[in-house]
Design a protein that fits this description.
Strand content: under 5%
Distance between the termini: 79 Å
Number of strands: 2
Structural class: mainly alpha
Helix content: 55-70%
Number of helices: 11
Strand order of the largest sheet: 1-2
């Protein structure tokens, strides 16, 4: 038999010496599901493991869960209202078929809970489809920065409280204690922060990251993600009034800027909670049956400009907080640490 000759060339797939541990050849590691370079919050889902099917499926699943939760909220609220005698089912369905939808306190609170449940839904999507821990939806550091969020919420509360007080004084609203006053007072305090945070996780977290990830370059991907989420946020409110739609769209853009500038959802959640809680302060003392009436003529820019001014003030206050507290605006930690180490010691100020 002739002498056998074996090739001394290494396998062609291995060119990096890092893949040659002692003892022989090892396959390259799988692509990282986390960013490997310093990354802004909206681009966190654009990683080496990204594939086009991931954001497409994420949007389909997220949209389906959103609709399912809304339907469940209506069914549960309707069942409770019928069981407690608050409404008569046949009469309610007849009114609904004629396009007249009456909001009850139970439905309002059930809707808040349904929107709040967007938080675990988006976190599960992050873990399942993008293989990232759900905690990284809170911020680039993988957690809620409570000191930053609570301090910012306290700082922005004054403009909204002033606006609400002036609105009640000028409007001369007739307030009175009703049988639902305590239910709404406690319910608003318990569920509205949950609802506001849920919308931020859904739109500024899930939707913005989903559409931003379609583009590799952050300078293009982030504006696309911000615009799409603002449009969907506006559409989700189901308003038929142009002024209301302009307000919701503007709110969505401001919240997106806050997320980009601060590196997390905390500031946007604070604005959303303060805005919603202050706007609902009079609800326990009024008739709320038509609170979701958002058809043409339901509002005007004259009614909405104070809220827009408060949003602009919130942007300015956020800029002050960012410059003073210096929260991390890029992440994750394992991607930013090498950059900081290479940069050398931080100069004293």
């Amino acid at each position: 038999m002739g002498e056998q000759h074996w090739s001394t060339q290494p396998p062609p797939v291995l060119l990096n010496p890092a893949y040659l541990p002692e003892g022989g050849w090892a396959p390259p590691p799988p692509p990282s599901p986390m960013p490997v370079v310093p990354t802004r919050y909206p681009m966190f889902w654009r990683t080496p493991a990204w594939s086009v099917w991931r954001p497409i499926l994420a949007f389909i699943v997220g949209f389906g869960c959103f609709l399912l939760l809304q339907v469940l909220a209506m069914v549960v609220a309707l069942a409770i209202d019928v069981a407690t005698g608050r409404i008569v089912l046949k009469t309610y369905l007849d009114e609904l078929s004629k396009g007249r939808f009456s909001v009850t306190p139970v439905f309002f609170l059930a809707n808040n809970v349904a929107l709040g449940l967007s938080i675990p839904v988006v976190m599960l999507i992050s873990r399942w489809l993008f293989r990232q821990p759900g905690r990284h939806l809170a911020s680039v550091v993988g957690r809620i920065r409570w000191r930053f969020m609570l301090g910012y919420a306290a700082a922005i509360s004054l403009p909204w409280l002033v606006m609400t007080g002036l609105d009640l004084w000028w409007g001369r609203a007739e307030l009175s204690v009703t049988t639902d006053t305590w239910l709404l007072l406690v319910g608003i305090l318990l569920t509205t922060p949950f609802q506001a945070a849920g919308e931020e996780f859904l739109f500024r977290g899930g939707v913005m990251r989903t559409f931003a990830s379609f583009v590799r370059r952050p300078a293009i991907g982030i504006p696309i993600g911000a615009l799409v989420q603002a449009l969907l946020f506006m559409a989700a409110h189901g308003a038929g009034d142009a002024s209301l739609n302009a307000y919701y769209f503007f709110f969505g853009l401001v919240a997106a800027w806050l997320v980009w500038r601060t590196g997390g959802l905390e500031a946007a959640i604070a604005v959303h909670v303060v805005n919603n809680v202050t706007s609902e302060l009079s609800m326990p003392f009024t008739d709320i049956s038509h609170m979701f009436d958002r058809q043409e003529g339901a509002a005007s820019l004259a009614d909405l400009w104070p809220g827009m001014v408060c949003l602009v003030l919130a942007v300015g206050i956020a800029e002050v907080f960012v410059r003073r507290l210096r929260p991390a605006v890029v992440g994750p930690e394992q991607a930013t640490r090498p950059v900081l180490e290479q940069a050398g010691p931080r100069p004293a100020l």
